[in-house]
Write a structure and sequence with these properties.
The protein contains 12 helices and 18 strands. The protein is α/β, with parallel strands linked by helices.
């Protein structure tokens, strides 16, 4: 089969995988196409609730026509018994002649073992076709499964001069409707949304997902609130039936306020202090323990600084509106104490840029990013010495 054909069928597998976005977590999103005699005989994608993996769905659709065929799959098929039998073994049993894999599974429990099963069975395996496109679909899963912590994605909508609000503290809608729609797409892709209590007090947002694409798991809403100042009348608590609310506080936060928030359905979690705020590593561990693969940090200004200064940002989207707010008292996109010297400043690389209506979106990665897609890395594996430790994969 020609390289052109291989790319055509892998593009189809990637498109199928995207169908599972918002539906596969806490598993990775995967697409699979089975081709025999130049025709697609089976295809599938993974949805966690439907149990079957993409490869099994494709085999079932093929109805025995897969023997002697070629499988195109965006992620290395699993090689161990989880909620379902190993996909690699099922493909071998179906008589597949060749397997084209876009990306090796970053899960240490799988990585390379599925490939070994195929080669031991005499099946030809080609690895790496359209690898970057496949890795982009599993970026949160890859970070979680290799480091034990969720992928941390920050997002800020700001003016050309880097401000998120005027000196009067008017925060809302600096960016365009298209820029805000992009923000909703990030809420769709990730499992949790995190803000500081300052955002709750200033804007009283719902922090819910309001996009048009299906999302299987409710968006976890997390608030950093050391002293439990979240009002009991806040909209996140009034909408708690739509999505869970986690409020992180200091151990000595007022017990009366804690009881009141818990009575309204919020989960209140005491976290030790670290420096001038809560220990964000523990916050991330708590989110990871609840199956969160990726968390979107939307601020405010001090919260962005807390994550930047702690070295915990993996990816940062700057949505830049074509306007200038000016003024020494306008709110910066990243506040806090700031760096004392240029040499100390955290460095970023831009992986891509694109338009969202009139706004410019920069997709950037800091030098300490743990993402498998970080342009700072020379390979597709997370950097050594990352915080946390590798863990077993999520239920398959």
């Amino acid at each position: 089969m020609s390289d052109t054909d291989d790319r055509k069928y892998m593009r189809r597998a990637l498109a199928l995988a995207r169908t599972g976005m918002g539906l596969a977590s806490p598993n990775p999103t995967v697409g699979c196409v089975i081709v025999r005699a130049g025709r697609i005989v089976g295809q599938g994608w993974h949805e966690y609730a439907l149990l079957d993996h993409a490869e099994v769905r494709a085999l079932k659709e093929a109805r025995g026509r897969s023997r002697g065929g070629t499988v195109y799959v965006t992620l290395e098929p699993c090689s161990y018994q989880g909620r379902t039998p190993p996909c690699a073994d099922q493909l071998v049993g179906a008589g597949i002649r060749r397997v084209v894999v876009a990306a090796i599974d970053p899960n240490p429990r799988v990585s390379g073992r599925g490939i070994d099963i195929f080669r031991s069975a005499g099946i030809r395996v080609d690895v790496g076709l359209m690898r970057d496109e496949a890795l982009a679909l599993i970026e949160p899963f890859a970070c979680s499964v290799t480091t034990g912590l969720p992928l941390v994605v920050s997002k800020v909508g700001m003016s050309l001069d880097g401000r998120i609000a005027t000196h009067t503290r008017k925060y809302r809608w600096i960016t365009s409707s298209e820029g805000r729609e992009f923000g909703q797409s990030l809420r769709w892709q990730l499992d949790a949304l995190l803000v500081g209590v300052g955002t709750i007090l200033a804007d009283d947002p719902e922090l819910t997902y309001r996009g048009g694409c299906p999302k299987a798991r409710p968006l976890v809403r997390a608030v950093l609130d050391s002293k439990l100042r979240t009002p009991h009348t806040s909209r996140i608590l009034q909408t708690i039936s739509q999505a869970p609310v986690l409020i992180f506080c200091r151990p000595d936060a007022p017990a009366k306020r804690r009881r009141k928030l818990e009575a309204q359905g919020a989960e209140v979690i005491a976290v030790p202090n670290e420096g001038n705020g809560l220990d964000l590593r523990i916050v991330l561990r708590e989110l990871g323990a609840r199956g969160v693969l990726g968390v979107l940090v939307e601020g405010g200004s001090k919260v962005h600084w807390s994550f930047v200064s702690a070295g915990l940002i993996d990816k940062f989207y700057f949505i830049i509106a074509p306007l200038v707010l000016g003024g020494n008292l306008a709110v910066p996109s990243v506040g806090g104490r700031g760096y004392a010297t240029i040499e100390e400043a955290l460095r970023f690389k831009t992986r891509r840029s694109f338009r969202a209506g009139p706004d410019l979106v920069l997709e950037t990665y800091p030098s300490n990013s743990r993402s498998i897609l970080s342009p700072w890395l020379s390979s597709g594996t997370p950097p050594s010495g990352v915080p946390g430790s590798a863990r077993s994969s999520k239920p398959k």
